[in-house]
């Protein structure tokens, strides 16, 4: 039910000034209006001079940070921000989360929830807040589980996601996590993206029905089942409730990563982040073909052949994505000390036609090595 905007913004103001505030984000724009900054973020910080409220605004070129006293100075700063025609406000306190989305008619759609999903627990020491995008002490993890290593991995993945997405997120933002397993990333991505003020819909796909049942129950416990749902099915064929803008795949086994990339291409997803897991497809093909001269040494020894197969697999994946209109970066999303599976293919759809040189390079590379990657077969079918 829409509510009067003044009333909703008064509620936001009260929460911003309350001592239990943990984080707030204003973003987006109202129909026909443009705020003077694309995004504003507020959080409490503890500095040598005491508790302050840190306001970070971004005008699209660079962030501007200031720390204000929680009293009159903060009230004046928040009044300025609340007067800006932002499209969304997302406010988290120790006890609740309030999301306000301003409708086309200028009313407010307000979503209020208990803090389980939303609040960032623990001290607000400046350093600690800086170290994590999603604090490992976040109560979210108490519900979804996951050990310290998994939390670090998820946080690193979210950082790569943050570096890929634009400052202003589309709203609604539709996300799929393919091969979601226990859905640590699914819930963490929802928590992070909703925290940036977008209206987020996430679906997790896994072939295992027991995972769907478990994850759905977790979503209900977290109070986010309306926005986070799960489907049991293969990455290739699972029926989704929407066409996603953002595709995530963290350690989907072997060619399940190729299935994820192929589906993302077919969906024309705007952003695709896939961290591959084991690589068997090209490794098996390399065993059965004659290595082109003079590269014999790279495949003669099992360990080198395996490592080279990993590199060739992900190079061909990147090349194929490029041929299908994506700009691709291959990066390490976390230090290899945390997981050896630390590569990430990070892609953004530009829709650009491939050049003749890119086509030839791909054709020559696969022909010389005598390989036909799983992803190419999937994209051709
Ligand atoms: C290594 S786990 C990773 C889980 C999760 N993404 C994470 O990082 O915590 C791989 C998951 O992918 C699922 N999976 C593998 N192949 C799949 C396929 N073709 N379709 C759907 N799910 C698949 C498995 O059931 C498993 O839960």
Describe this structure in words.
The chain is of the alpha+beta class and 381 residues long. It has two domains: 2-130, no CATH class; 139-380, Vaccinia Virus protein VP39 (Rossmann fold, 3-Layer(aba) Sandwich). It has 13 helices and 15 strands. It has helices spanning 5-17, 72-83, 126-131, 139-144, 148-164, 184-195, 209-222, 256-267, 281-287, 296-300, 302-323, 356-369, 374-380; strands at residues 2-3, 21-27, 39-47, 50-58, 63-68, 88-93, 96-102, 108-114, 173-178, 200-206, 228-232, 246-250, 271-275, 326-332, 343-349. The strands form two sheets. It has an eight-stranded antiparallel beta sheet with strand order 1-8-7-6-2-3-4-5, covered by helices on one side. Strands 11-10-9-12-13-15-14 form a seven-stranded mixed beta sheet, with helices on both faces. Strand 6 (88-93) and strand 7 (96-102) form a beta hairpin. The two termini are 46 Å apart. Bound molecules: S-adenosylmethionine. S-adenosylmethionine binds at residues 179-182, 184-185, 205-208, 211, 234-235, 250-253, 256, 259, 277.
Topology:
Layout lengths: L1 E2 L1 H13 L3 E7 L11 E9 L2 E9 L4 E6 L3 H12 L4 E6 L2 E7 L5 E7 L11 H6 L7 H6 L3 H17 L8 E6 L5 H12 L4 E7 L2 H14 L5 E5 L13 E5 L5 H12 L3 E5 L5 H7 L8 H5 L1 H22 L2 E7 L10 E7 L6 H14 L4 H7 L1
Parallel strand pairs: 9-10, 9-12, 10-11, 12-13
Antiparallel strand pairs: 1-8, 2-3, 2-6, 3-4, 4-5, 6-7, 7-8, 13-15, 14-15
Helix pairs in contact: 1-2, 5-6, 8-13, 9-11, 11-12
The structure holds S-adenosylmethionine (SAM).
The site of S-adenosylmethionine has 20 residues, from α6, β10 and α8.
